[in-house]
Amino acid sequence: MAAMAKLLLLVGLVLVGCAAADSHRYRPGDAVPLYANKVGPFHNPSETYRYFDLPFCAPDKVKDKIEALGEVLNGDRLVDAPYKLDFRVDFDAKSVCSRRLTKDDVVKFRHAVSKDYYFQMYYDDLPFWGFIGTKPEKADAGDKYYLYRHIIFDILYNNDRVIEINVHTDQNAVVDLTDDKELDVEFLYTAKWKETQIPFEKRMEKYSSSSVMPHHLEVHWFSIVNSCVTVLLLTGFLATILMRVLKNDFVKYSHDEEEPDEQEETGWKYIHGDVFRFPSNKSLFSAALGTGTQLFALTTFIFLLALVGVFYPYNRGALFTALVVIYALTSGIAGYSATSFYCQLEGKNWVRNLLLTGCLFCGPLFLTFCFLNTVAIAYNSTAALPFGTICVIVLIWTLVTFPLLVLGGIAGRNSKNEFQAPCRTTKFPREVPTLAWYRRTIPQMAMAGFLPFSAIYIELYYIFASIWGHRIYTIYSILFIVFIILLIVTAFITVALTYFQLTAEDHEWWWRSFLCGGSTGFFVFAYCLYYYRERSDMSGFMQTSFFFGYMACICYAFFLMLGMVGFRAALLFVRHIYKSIKCE
C-alpha cells in the first residue's frame, strides 16, 4: 500500500508539473521564455506543423524544448521563438530579420494564408495565437493574399510577474503574396508593457471565460435540467409501471404456488430454469466486461483529477499524460474483472481470456493509431509521434500495463467466487418464442441508446468544440453531473428493457443487456457525422481521418463502458426478482 501511495504521488507530481520550481518572477530586463509551438489551418485542429516549416525568420540552429509525454501526444513541438521580449522592456518596430522570399517561399505563405493558418506560442507559459496573414472573405479569381510582417505584443504585468499577453498585427505593414515572384521582406515586432492589478493567481481566467460566460452557463444548466427531467421521467416510469407490474407478478406467482394445478406458468417465472444459463461466447463476454470496468475506472479517476484542478488550461499535455498513466495502472482491474467473471461462468481457458481482455480495446486503438500516424508522417505533421515517444508507450505497455493485467488475471483466477444464481438451470434450454420485430436486438438497442443520448447531447457540442476546436473546456463539475446522469439513465433503461424481454419468455438477456447499455456509443458516433458536416469547417484527408478515426475509438470505449454498466444493472435486477419468488 505504501508503494502504491508513493506511485500515485509521483503520478500527481508528473501531471501537475514542476511549476512550483519556477516562480515566474522577473526583474526589469530579465529574459522571459518565449516558445513558438506550431502552425496550421484554423479549422483543422489536428493538422498542425512545426513553426519553422514556414519560411519565417529562423536562427542558424533551431533549439527544441524538451517536452513531456503528454505534450508530444498533444502535437506540441516547442522551439525558441525568433522574438526576444525581455521583462518590462518597451520598443517599437524592432527588426527580426530581413530576408528575400523565393518563389517557393511565396507559394508556401500564400497557401498558408488561403487556408487561414494560425500560429501558437507560449510566453511565460501563457498561450497566445495569431493569424499569419489575411485574405478577402470571398475567394474570387482576382483576390489578394497578404502576409503580416509586423507583430505587436501587448503585455500586462503586476509587479514582477507576467499576467497577460495579447498579439495583433499592423494592418498597414503587409506583403502582397498574390504573384509568384521573389520579394524582399523585413519582419518587425513591437512590445508594449502595461501594468495591471490582476493577481497572478487569476491570470488564466481569460482562457476559461468563454466557458463561463452567462449565455454559455445558461446553456450548460439547461443541459443539466434537461438531463434531470429525463432521469425523473424514467425513474417515475420505473416506479409506477415496473414496480406495480412486478408486485402483481409476485402476487400472481404466489397464488400459483398455492394452487399449482390450476394454471400453467407464464411470463418471466416460466423461464426461471433458463434465465441464468451462461451466455454464448463467454470468453468474449467476460473480456468486454473487464475492459468496460477498466474504462469506467479510468473515466472516474480522470474526473477526480479534473475536479481537483489538475487540468488547468496551460498545463500542457496533462490530460494525455493522465490517460496513458492511469490506463496503465488500471489494467489490473480489467484482468481481475474479466478472469474472475470468466471463471464464475465455468470457463476453462482463462489465459486466452486474459489475452483477449488485453487486446479488446488496445488492439483496435493500436491499429487506428498506426494508420493515423502514417497519415501524419506523410503530411509531415506534428501530430506524428516521434519514434522515441512510440518506444516509451510500448515500454509502458510492456513493463506496466501487461504485468498488471496478468497479476489481476491471476488474482481473479484464484478468487474462486461462484456465480450466485437464485434458480437452478435446467439441462436443456427452452426454445425462445418468435418475437415481434420491435422486441428484437436492433430495435431494442435503438430505444435503449436514445434516452441516454438525449440526456447528454447538449453538452456534447461543448466537448466536441473543445476537442476538435479552439475552445477551452473548464466546467468539469457540470460534466461530471452529466456523466452521473448518463450512468443512471443507462442502467434504468437497460433494466426496463430486460424486464420486457423476460416477460416475452426470452431468456437470452445477457448479451442483449450489454448491447442495449452500450448502444449510446452508436448514437454518439452518429452525432460525429452531424457535427462534422453541420457544425464544423474541417476538411482534408488528414483532418477527416483523425476526426473519425479517434472518435470511433472513443465511441467504442463508450460502448464497452456503458455496456458493462447496463449488464451489471440488469444482473442485479434479474437476481432480485428471481430471489423474490419460489423456484422449483
Automatic annotation (TrEMBL):
SUPFAM superfamilies: MFS general substrate transporter. This is Transmembrane 9 superfamily member. It holds the Pfam family EMP70. InterPro entries: EMP70 (IPR004240), MFS_trans_sf (IPR036259). It comes from Oryza punctata (Red rice). It is a multi-pass membrane protein. PROSITE patterns: PROKAR_LIPOPROTEIN. The keyword Membrane applies.
